[in-house]
Every structure is written in C-alpha cells, then in structure tokens.
Amino acid sequence: MIKKRNQKKKLKRVFIILALLIAGVLVGRAAFAVFYSGEEGLSVERLVGVSAGLNNRVSFLLIGTDKRPGESSYNADSIIVASFDPKTKLISLLSIPRDTRVTLPGSKNYYKINAVPMLKGIPELEKQVTGLTGIKLDGYVLTNFAGFKDIIDTLGGITIDVEKDMQHVTGDKEDGYINLKAGVQELDGSKALQYARYRDSTTADIGRTARQQKVLTTAGKKMLEPATILKLPKLVPQLMKTVETDLSLKDLLTLAGAAKSFDDATIVTQTLPGDAIMLDGLSYWEVNRDKAKEVAGNLLLGQTADDIWDSSVLASLDPEVKARLAAPAKEDVIDIPEIPGVIVPKEGETPLTTIQTEQYAGTVTWLPADAIFLAGQKYTATITLVPKAGYTLKGVAADFFAVPGASTTRNAAGSGIITAVFPALPSEPAEPDESAEPAEPNEPNEPNEPNEPNEPATAISLSKVRGVIPPESGASPVKTITETEQYIGTISWSPADDPFVEGREYTATITLVPKEGYTLEGIGKNYFTVPGAAAANPAGSGVVTAVFPQKDKKLPGTE
C-alpha cells in the first residue's frame, strides 16, 4: 500500500511538472519552488533517489493542434522545437512554419509539415523535424486549442499589443472567427488563441510564428508573478485534461531539476529561415536544408539569424523542383496592398531598404539618400516590387498600393513601382542665442537683397547604365549600379536567385535616383540602355527593366 501511495505521488509530481511545462516550457521556476518547499518536502532527488544524469540537454517538440476530444485525425497548428541545456542555462525555442515543404516515405508528392501528424503520426513528424534541423528529439508534448484557452483563462488573461486589426473566418465549428482590434489590451483565452492563430496576407506563416512566440513569452512572464502561484491548484488539473506526451520521467525531472536556476536563464527564439514559393499552384515555406541545420545548431548556442527570409533558397532547390517552379499552375494577381515595413521616417533611424512577403520581394530607394533620417527633411521612397513565382502585377490597379503615413502614394496600373512621399520631419525649435547681436535694419531707401533664384535642374544625359553585370552561373547578383555624377541606382532581380542558376532568363529592375541638380523630367521612352540586355523605361522615368536572355539565346541584332 505504501509503495502504491508513493507511486501515485511520483505520478502526481510528473503531471505537475508536465503541466507547468506546457504552461510555458520555461516559466515554471516559481511554481517548482513552491512544490519543492511544500509541506510534503518532496525533491527531485528523493523522487528518483539520485541527482546524477540530470545535466544533459533535453529537446522536444511542443505541438499545438486543432485536435478535438475523441478525434484521431488532426493537423499541427504550431510546431516548436524546445530545447533546454541545464549546463549553460540556455533555453531555445525554434518555430517550424506549418507550411514547410516536406516529402513522405513511399510518396512522390509534396506536403506541408503541419499535415504529417494526420498522415503519418507524431513519430514521423519528429523524424521530419530532426531531418530539417539536425536536433535529436527526446519526445513531444502536445496540447489542443481547449487546453491553450484554459491556460490563459486560468492565468487571468494576458496583456498583448495587437499590432493591427485582425479579422478572419477560420471555418472551424469552434474558434471559427478571428476579430481583434489593434492596440494594447487584455486577451482572454479565446482572444489569445485568435491572436496566435491569425495569418495575415503579408507575412503569412512567419507572422504567425512570431505571434505565437510573443504569446508564450507573455504567458511566461505572467506565470512568474507571485499571484499566479495561488492559481496553480486550478491550473494543473486543467492542463492535465489536455496534455499528451511521451517524454520520459528522466527528461521531465531534468527540466524540473533545472527549474530552480531559471532566474538567470537565457531565452532565445527563432523562426526557421526560408522563403515562400509556389509549387504546382500551391504555396509552401521552403528552407535551404544545409542552412536550416546551421541556424538550428547556432540557436542551441544562443545565436539567432538576422533575417527570416533566406535568399539562397531558390538556388538550393534540385532541378526537378525548379522545373515545377518555372511553370506554376497559374499566376495570381498580387493582392497585398499595404507595403510592409516602410514606416514614417523618424529622426535618427536607419531607412529600410528591402521588403519581403510571400507574394513579392522589393527594394526601397530613399531620396535624399541619408544614412539616417534627419529632422526637418522631406523624404521620398521609391519602392520596386518583384513578384515571386505564381504571382503577377498584371491586373494591379493604379494607386493600388498603400504606404501608411505617406502623404501621397502612387503606382501606375500593372506596375510594382511605388512612389511614397513623406512630409518633412518636425525640427526642434532652435534655442535663442542671447549673445547674438540684433540684426541691423536696412538703411533708408536701401532695398532688401533679393534671394538668388535656384538654378534649374539639368536633364540626365548618361544613357548607358553601368555596373549591371550579365548573369553568370554561380555568381551573386549585384544590387547597385556603378555610381555616376548624375545618378545612383539599386537593382532587384527576378527570379531572386543567389547565386544565378544556369539556363534561366533574368530580369533586372533598376531604379535610378537623380543626384542634386539633375532631373528625369524630359527623359524619353526607352532612353536608358543596359549592356547585354533588352532595356526599357517609361518616358520621364528612371525605372529601367532589363531582360537578360538565357545563355543559349541571342538578343536580336547580336548574331
């Protein structure tokens, strides 16, 4: 009887550890401290009889699902590799976008990784994640939507700054609507789930993984508040209803044994870098397999990647996949009007120069070309968008695109060239100089000196755009032209391969920005030339489209 009672205590202890683990893998230190020092006087050492062997890294999948009670078929709504190293006190969270493209044993088809649990089960999902990241997994922890909402509600809600209005119909019988207003607010379980699940058209899966990490971090901070400890008796039973795991007792106790030291732990988060592709008419998140392992390995050392969007993806694809990319089933008209990331200039901030969404990439050229924004200065952003595979600018209406905060935003019909004008930044009023002598009034009958008229700008006369090197297999695309005394310029390429791939046609979109004293007014249609390419530009425009043919083709007149 005593032995059974002790076993029940151990199991209860494991469930408590597991519940707190799900509540926010990394947030249980205060709760564990209470249980360690409680009336029972239990400790990890007394539970297992030894303290050795609890110093090794534990890595596992933290899976959020849409699984309903009694259902055996479900998709993974969030997939996170959680890893804790007790020796370095480093906690790593690596989000795997649910649209990540994978293949399954015995099939020639492509699948999104979130469908793997439904098709092949959790063991296959673990194999896929290990294959992508190189991280050996000790097991998984799974919870569903109901469990997530219960956790947040038991905590009393969480405070989140919702970055924009969010409306979407998910199609689920439960949790079927997302309807949130922008701003800092208290979210209950249902609204927190809406926030974590929202998938906007701009960043899609990448924005969603960032929001999921934000929710986990916020819930973690809430768990550390002293008042939360009083809610644990209610929190633990709620969690136990909705949690599944195959983690061993040893792994759970490793996490529990390290919980006391979470006060000075380091937490790093990362989304697995990649790029959005269209394959046979379907969208996927594609990763460079070699770089994915490098990023995952660095994260375990506490190092994060600077950019989620990986420009090396297309070049890393095998020829069979590239062929299917080159001929998508259809092209959809770009329908993301709001240009992400281009915000109102603020004094002292660095201008944004690149844009990425799942539908297009883009470059931003600022005039004046200040390294940092200056007060009292009016700025114009020329944005050049390049559609990704499966998308087109044909059919985009005039002035379709929007840039928040710009006084005017313009684009021609069917064009991805957007001009956004921002009003002058306010200047700090100058302090009066009390030591300065008052200005002498004009002598009687002496007229004021007239202001010197501004000299008229000179039309650009350098027609040949230099520095745009024709694509060579294995070479990296140049991003800027050779600067001249009359203008500077940036280059964006389509397809956005890096390096160039043999046998492909490439289009360089060159945006020329006149220097002071020069203007594009009066420039004729197709005035500019680019060596090795068929170049075209509208009248009065410095946006030059240069098409470089495949290596086995010749430009007209070059035979």
CATH topology assignment of the largest domain: Aminopeptidase
Give me the CATH architecture of the largest domain, please: 3-Layer(aba) Sandwich
Give the class from helix and strand content and strand pairing. Answer: alpha+beta
CATH class of the largest domain: Alpha Beta
Number of strands: 27
Region (Disordered): 426-457
Organism: Desulfosporosinus youngiae DSM 17734
Protein name: Cell envelope-related function transcriptional attenuator common domain protein
Family: Belongs to the LytR/CpsA/Psr (LCP) family.
Task: Please outline the helices and strands.
Elements: H1 2-24, H2 29-36, H3 44-48, E1 58-65, E2 76-85, E3 90-95, E4 101-103, E5 110-112, H4 116-119, H5 122-133, E6 139-144, H6 145-154, E7 158-162, E8 166-169, E9 177-180, E10 183-187, H7 189-197, H8 204-223, H9 226-229, H10 232-241, E11 243-245, H11 249-258, E12 266-271, E13 275-279, E14 282-286, H12 289-299, H13 313-316, H14 319-326, E15 332-333, E16 354-356, E17 360-367, E18 379-387, E19 391-392, E20 408-411, E21 417-422, E22 458-459, E23 487-494, E24 506-514, E25 518-519, E26 534-536, E27 543-548
Parallel strand pairs: 1-6, 3-12, 15-19, 22-25
Antiparallel strand pairs: 1-2, 2-3, 4-5, 6-11, 7-10, 8-9, 13-14, 16-17, 17-18, 18-21, 20-21, 23-24, 24-27, 26-27
Helix pairs in contact: 1-10, 1-11, 6-7, 6-10, 7-8
